[in-house]
Amino acid sequence: MPAAAGITASIPSPDPSWSQFSLGPLTVHTYALCLLAAIALATYVTHRRLVARGADREVTLDVVFWAVPLGIVVARIYHVLTHLGDYTDGTGPWGYWEWVRVWDGGIAIYGALLGGALGVWIGCRRAGLRFWSFADALAPAMLAAQAVGRLGNYVNQELYGAPTTLPWGLEIDGAVAGHPDATLFHPIFLYEMLWNLLGVAVLLLVERLARRRGEVRADAVGEPGYGLRWGRLFALYLVWYGLGRSWLEAVRIDPTSNAPLGVPANIWTSLVAIALGVALFVVRARQHPEPETSVYLPGRGPGREPEPASTGSTAGSAGSTGSSAEEPTSAG
Predict the structure, then answer these.
(1) Where are the stretches annotated Disordered (predicted)?
(2) What's the CA gap between 137 and 154, in Å, rounded?
């Protein structure tokens, strides 16, 4: 598609044939490959961070086994419920084959967060990990994975914003309702990729500065450093991502999204994410001013099974496998 008149530069969209290819009798969707690459990246980074904090080398996959399927299912449900106009053909809610065609695009990151959080909670309980310890390890990995996943939106020619005359305007094949041919649009997918990658750098920098501050404090007063554990780094992730999505959604063209009070559903969810992140940071800081000594729940650890209640063991006897500041029944 040619660039708009007077525009000497633009971002061309990939040829529609790039969105899928045949492998024997199978049709492989590029969008799905981007999602798989994102999941693999998040798993790898989280694994490295957890192992560095004392976790068993097998435990990350144990949690991912639960988080990924639930994340995808709820992500699809969230997208469908916020874009019902795309999935209404008069055949009744259980006759919509389009509802499950996730490979054609149409999953929502906020739904993935909700479903993934449930999966992580289940996986962590089974593995004996602290939920919030896993979340802290996951936070920068999530942003990196989300950046990779947005490549799938580019290939599918989706996730774009209002018209623009900027030289990085995005070309879209075919007519976009309400806009003349050759119109260029804000590349929302690219903006979010850059925002997420910047967020990775910010979270890692803040984490390192907090650790160094703790080391200085330890040298000065003999107290161990606190760092950003107990869910506080994940809280910052929620704030960062919520801020980014709130302004990106404000310029996005998404006419089929539900808009309570005229505000797109994703903006409402972004505001909730920001508020939740702020509250989580404050509450967890007050609940756990002590350093996190283990990513495992009390009484649990590499190669250890839950201790029977009849043994009379207490959280305080868990030793290095967990901090007695958190009850065994806590999600961590």
Answers:
(1) 292-332
(2) 28
Alpha carbon distance 258, 332 (integer Å): 35
For residue range 300-309, list pLDDT tens digits in order: 666 555 555 4
Overall size of the chain counted in residues: 332
Residue whose structure tokens are 């007050």: 286
**How is the chain split into domains, by residue range?**
16-171+182-301
Distances (CA, A) of 114 to 57, 72, 77: 26, 10, 11
* H and E: helices and strands count for the chain: 7, 4
CA distance 141 to 145: 6
Here the tokens at position 70 are: 């639930």
Helix (H) / strand (E) element for 27: namely strand 26-29
Calculate mean pLDDT across residues 266-283. 92
Q: What is the DSSP string of 228-245?
A: STTTHHHHHHHHHHHHHH
pLDDT in tens, 207-222: 988 887 765 554 444 4
Pair of tokens at residue 282? 């404050």
150 is in an annotated binding site: yes
Specify the pLDDT at position 259. 65
